[in-house]
Design brief:
The chain contains 14 helices and five strands. It is α/β, with parallel strands linked by helices. It has a five-stranded parallel beta sheet with strand order 2-1-3-4-5, with helices on both faces. Helix 10 runs parallel beside helix 11 (about 195-205).
Amino acid sequence: MNVILDPRTVGAQVRMRMPSMTPLEARVIDTITGRTDFDLTTPIKAVAEDAGVSEAMIVKIAKKLGFSGFRDFREAFVSYRQSDVASLHAEISPDDSSADIVRKVFNTASQALKETLSILDMAAFDRATDLLHGARQRDFYGVGGSAQIARDVAHKFLRIGLRCNVFDDTHMMLMSASLLGPDDVIVAVSHSGATTAVLEAVMLARQNGARTIALTNYAGSPIAEMADVTLCSTAQGSPLLGENAAARLAQLSIMDAIFVGVAQRDFPKAEADLTKTMHAVDTKRKK
């Protein structure tokens, strides 16, 4: 039975599982998804011949993607291609007008948000919210653009009286991880889920008993397999924008929702601390 029921999730599920595919499997998937004539009548034999592999390999790949077989994959992928979500994405062209550019960039962001919402694991969301609410200490790890997401979340948590530390340096992350214990929580942000500096810090934190939350774009990535809780964004890449730009918006939205969930756990305190922190900076705004 096909476990992917919502057509909107198909593109996201395929992209998230790509890191766990072998080079041959990834090439076959690219061949299949690149066919413009792929429809409900496309036979597995034609797909296998086009990809240069056996029919058994096609079935194996379909199952690895979360489907019961080729027919389930074919039906789901065709439905996805016909969905509004799939039609949102368009490549940037040198001939695009300013209006075209703005529309395509906004549509790419909208697509990332819609697909991320459709795949978000609510049990993982609740678990992450509970862990962050009950933690003695909250440390955030990330490098590059991921560090900016960590800083944004830490800023929001401080507004409701929850102090967080953000580390974007390899040595600092390891030093932090070495001092954590069972009452502490880390949030590791990594778009690829394979950033060595972050992985090493997560591993050390786990060895010391800390609970770990991963925020990544790939469910099959090393960090997703290592963490206690994994929250996945999803974004379709383009040569110019890449995946990171749209995924960043989706990841910020996930963490915004986590922030609200944590505040809800003790709303009177969160409200009181929010009033204090807002009042503290109010004098710095020009009247």
